[in-house]
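Below sits our specimen:

——
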Amino acid sequence: MRFIDPKTDFAFTKIFGNDQAHDVLIHFLNSLLGLKDKHAVVEVKILNPYLAPRIAYQKHSFLDVKCIDQRGIHFVVEMQVQYIQSFEKRIIYNASKAYVNQLARGESYPQLNQVIAINILDFILFDDIKEYHTKHLIKEDLSNNCYLRDIQYHFIELPKFNKIESGLTSMADRWIYFIKEAGHLENIPESLEIEPYKHAFEIANIAGMSKEELDSFEAASIALQDEKGIVEAAWDKGKTEGKTEGKIEGKIEGKIEGKIEGIKEAIELGLELKYGVQGLKLLEQINKITSVEKLQTIKEALKISKMIEEIAKLL
C-alpha cells in the first residue's frame, strides 16, 4: 500500500479540501485548535474545493484550503514547503484578505467574522522556539491582554515534530504525524486505524486514484522536489565547477581561483532564486571578494536566510 504525500499541493487539497470528506477537515480543525463543545466546528463550507484534475501543476510552493464553519468563522489552512521572501507578510496579507472580503459593498463592519489562519510549514520559521505548534495573537503591550481577537495565526513547523507513532498522545499529534509521514508509509499505523484518520488514508491511497489524479500527483511531486532541491543543486554545481577549474589550471592559484568562481556562481544562482532582482544587486560587492572563507560563509548563510538583509550584512 502506498500513499500520496500530503505535503504536495495536489495531495493536500485532495485530502483536506475534498467536498466528499468534510469529516476529515472538521476533525483536523477541532483537533489542532482544541475546539470543543459550543466552539467546535460542526459543519463546513469549502470555498475552494478539490476538483481533479484541475490542480495538475502549480508553480509555487504553497496551497491553501479555505472554508467557513456554521458560525461564519473563516479558516485558511495553508501548506508551505519552502521559505520564500516576505513569507510572513504574505501570511498576514492572506488572512487580512479573507477578513476584508467577507463584506460586500454597502455592508457594515458587524458582519465581519473571525479569521483563523493555520500555516503548516516544512521548514523552521521560529529558531528560538522549540515547540512545533505556536499561536499568534494581537495583544496590548502593557497588560498582555488580547482585545483584538478577529484574526489569529497558527504555525505548525514539521521539522520540530519528532514523535514516533508510539509517542502520539493527542488527536492533533496524529494529524501532524499523518501530514509529515504518510508519504513514507506502506500501511496505516495502528493508532490511526480509526476514523477519520482512516478515511484520510483511504483518500491518500494511490491504488484508488484515477489516471488523471496519478498524473497530477506525479507532477506535484516533481515540482515539490524541484523547489526543495534547486538551491542545493546550485551549491553542488558551484563546488564541482570550482574543483574542475582548479584541476584545469594545474596550480594552487588556479585551484583557488576556480573554487572562488564556482562559489560565486552558486551564490549568484541562489540570490536570483530566493530574492530575484534585489538579490542580484548584491553581486557587484560579492564579485569583489577574494576570500574563499568569506564566500563560503555567504553561501551557507544564503541557504538558511529569510531576508536579503541577512546577506547584505555579511558583505
